[in-house]
Specification:
- The complex is a heterodimer of chains A (249) and B (229).
- Chain A has 249 residues and is mainly α.
- Chain A has one domain (24-46, 53-248).
- Chain A has helices at residues 4-11, 14-46, 60-87, 90-122, 130-151, 154-185, 201-233, 238-248.
- The longest helix of chain A is centred in the first third of the chain and has 33 residues, at 14-46.
- Chain A starts with a helix and ends with a helix.
- Chain B has 229 residues and is mostly helical.
- Chain B has one domain.
- Chain B is built from nine helices and no strands.
- In chain B, helix 3 (51-73) runs parallel beside helix 7 and helix 7 packs antiparallel against helix 8.
- The longest helix of chain B has 30 residues, at 97-126.
- At the A-B interface, helix 5 and helix 6 of A face helix 7, helix 8 and helix 9 of B.
């Protein structure tokens, strides 16, 4: 039985992570698909329609979990960057790259589903609302990390992107607070998204299942992207060559 | 015998060197202000020349144009030193790098930020900014440009060695600039609307203090990363 730091050290090697994640992948995929399917079917087909918004509110079962992960994913990316900078772990930098891509995609889906939800509820696709604007800025922050990671080559790209991700973590709360303050200065929205009533349990429970399901789905996507990063980053090593040739032949 | 140095130490040496370089390239130092004036000319051309319309949009427009001018000026913070190799000397010197970066930020603010603050009243007059808006505009811009120089130093350091880093620098710095724009434009607008702008100005001052504290070590780390390759 290997000790805890040894085990962590071994997991930190891209090759070992590739091997172990390959074994966990089917289980993760089944769990992600299962839980999100239960949540989505429950929410989309069986939860009661909203008193004010009718069936259009059901997009929340996609929109809310995706928005959660868009924000949480930024911190995961920054954490990976910090680990990579401090301990110079190659796998952490690969995780940062993967988290930037997956996070940007989730933020984009959050903006897109928000716009589609806005059309029937607010009568317009886009409102300069505090949370929407914050999400848009978050999307720009993700794109900045991705762009910086592509501007350099090799280790320098990884470390520069990690520094930018860390600078972003200080700025994300400031941006959120300032956009919130900016929005309250302006006229409040004429149509409120939700009333003063909190969510009914019959609607909330499927939403919680959806959030859990999308956390698993995010983990799955992240692992898949990290594995792709490992193969791309280690393409000159023998084990990747053997893997590629072995699978071909 | 030379007179005693009023500002000894590596901070002052780098600070004075940057100011001397700026004085010798005065034509370059004028460019951000020129950009500011020209971009402000776009506002009446693009919106409307009527004084009432301009007065309404002046607080936001002046801040937006000042922010863009500050963004363009960022390129000069480290790029010239990187090209002639002196940045390598700065980074490899035994002095604390964050202190040297702070010296460069201060010099950059004096050369690129302060002229924008001083040009702002003229732009304000041209855009028919109401008289009560001038004091919060000047004070806000003084704090705001300091924040922009500090935050921008991180972006400039990260992109300094990247080929074609200029546009990339704008892309990564602009989202970070947005809180400064929000509070800066709001302070002027509040004053124009007869409200007390001191809250927004206090936040701008706090942001400047925060960014001037946190940005130098972050920019120092970024410089080490960028020059590593």
């Amino acid at each position: 039985m290997a000790s805890w730091p040894q085990w962590l050290h071994r997991l930190g090697s891209p090759r070992e992570f590739y091997r172990l994640s390959g074994r966990a992948l089917p289980w993760l995929a089944v769990a992600a698909a299962g839980v999100s399917m239960v949540g989505l079917v429950w929410g989309l087909a069986f939860a009661p329609p909203d008193a004010r918004q009718g069936h259009s509110f059901r997009i929340a079962y996609l929109h809310v979990p995706v928005s959660f992960l868009a924000l949480a994913g930024y911190y995961l990316m920054a954490l990976a960057g910090a680990v990579g900078l401090v301990w110079r772990v190659k796998l952490a930098h690969m995780t940062l790259r993967a988290a930037a891509r997956v996070g940007a995609a989730f933020t984009f889906v959050a903006l897109l589903t928000g716009a589609l939800w806005g059309k029937p509820t607010w009568g317009t696709y886009w409102v300069w609302d505090a949370r929407i604007t914050s999400m848009l800025i978050l999307f720009f922050l993700y794109l900045g990390v991705i762009a910086l990671g592509q501007a350099y080559r090799g280790e320098r790209a990884d470390r520069a992107a990690a520094v930018l991700a860390l600078v972003g973590t200080v700025n994300v709360p400031i941006i959120y607070k300032s956009v919130d303050w900016w929005y309250t200065l302006h006229q409040p929205a004429t149509i409120k998204l939700t009333g003063t009533t909190t969510m009914h349990p019959a609607m909330l429970h499927p939403l919680l299942v959806c959030i859990a399901g999308f956390y698993l789905f995010y983990a799955l996507l992240l692992v898949l992207h990290v594995r792709a990063e490992i193969l791309a980053g280690e393409r000159r090593t023998r084990w990747v060559r053997e893997l590629a040739l072995g699978e071909r032949g | 015998m030379r007179p005693a140095d009023p500002l000894p130490g590596p901070f002052a040496a780098l600070f004075r060197r940057d100011l001397a370089l700026a004085r010798r390239h005065a034509a370059e130092a004028v460019q951000p202000v020129l950009f500011f004036a020209m971009a402000a000319t776009l506002v009446p051309l693009g919106l409307a020349p009527e004084p009432e319309t301009l007065a309404r949009f002046a607080p936001g427009a002046i801040w937006m144009m000042a922010l863009l001018a500050a963004l363009l000026a960022l390129d000069g913070l480290f790029a010239a030193d990187y090209r002639d190799g002196s940045l390598e000397q700065v980074v490899s010197s035994p002095q604390p790098l964050w202190l040297l970066v702070l010296a460069k930020i201060f010099a950059h603010w004096l050369v690129a930020g302060l002229p924008l603050v001083m040009a702002a009243p003229v732009v304000g007059l041209a855009l028919h900014l109401p008289a009560v808006g001038f004091a919060p505009l000047l004070l806000g811009l003084a704090f705001g440009t300091a924040s922009l120089s500090a935050l921008g130093a991180v972006g400039a350091a990260l992109t300094v060695a990247a080929p074609r880093g200029g546009l990339l620098l704008s892309l990564i710095a602009m989202p970070l600039y947005m809180p400064v724009l929000i509070f800066g434009a709001a302070a002027v607008r509040q004053a124009v609307e007869g409200l007390d702008p001191s809250g927004a100005l206090a936040v701008l001052g706090a942001l400047a203090a925060l960014f001037l504290t946190l940005a130098p070590p972050a920019a120092a780390g970024a410089l080490r990363v960028a020059l590593d390759g």
